[in-house]
């Protein structure tokens, strides 16, 4: 059954990229260092039909849009190939350029146990991640992360993130670890007082029924 947390390799014509994707209950939420990918899927026999919308979350011009436009829509169909899923399709904006992708499941079991998220605080949804080192070296990363009832799933073009968070009193605290999508045995843990994290809700983010609108910014301490 199609579902779970995946790393993604994709190719549009001669250009290629990587990201992550969470699949559940007809919805697909993911992205990479500069773009969020938000869409739906339908299982039709042995095929899976997907529609994915791309939204830029990082204004850095060093991450150009593969489609030539920040907002694009993908239509594709795919099938299971062992543990992976292979897709082919077209972008609405570039109908003559073939698109292909490979979705590979993250096989870490079990996924992180959920933390506690008080009602009325940070809500479920897809967020843009900004992380910077506090030693003025200018180092950092950007990506996306899905907050879901105390659990974090996310990633960028090079790493995927797994973690947990707690939320109370309008603030949240997170514990994250990352693994390379190219070399999954490489692991990095975010240490207390060495980094700061900001998270901003991505446009088109989903919210839990009855929850309040997300705050414009959520600051996290990672330990």
Number of domains: 2
Q: Report strand %.
A: over 45%
Shape: globular
At the first level of CATH, what is the class of the largest domain? Mainly Beta
| CATH homologous group name of the largest domain | T3SS negative regulator GrlR
Provide a count of the helices.
Answer: 0
Q: Can you tell me the CATH topology of the largest domain?
A: Lipocalin
Helix amount, in percent? Answer: under 10%
Overall pLDDT confidence = 78
**Largest sheet entry:** 8 strands, antiparallel, barrel
Structural class computed from helices and strand pairing: mainly beta
Rg computed from alpha carbons, rounded to a whole number of angstroms: 17 Å
Euclidean distance between termini CA atoms: 35 Å
Write the layout of secondary structure elements.
Elements (H helix, E strand, L loop, with lengths): L3 E9 L2 E10 L2 E5 L3 E10 L2 E10 L15 E10 L2 E8 L6 E8 L19 E9 L6 E9 L2 E5 L3 E10 L2 E10 L6 E3 L5 E7 L16 E5 L1
Parallel strand pairs: 13-16
Antiparallel strand pairs: 1-2, 1-8, 2-3, 3-4, 4-5, 5-6, 6-7, 7-8, 9-10, 9-15, 10-11, 11-12, 12-13, 13-14, 15-16
Compact summary:
With 223 residues, the chain is an all-beta fold. 0% of the residues lie in helices and 57% in strands. The chain has two domains: 4-105, T3SS negative regulator GrlR (Lipocalin, Beta Barrel); 125-222, no CATH class.
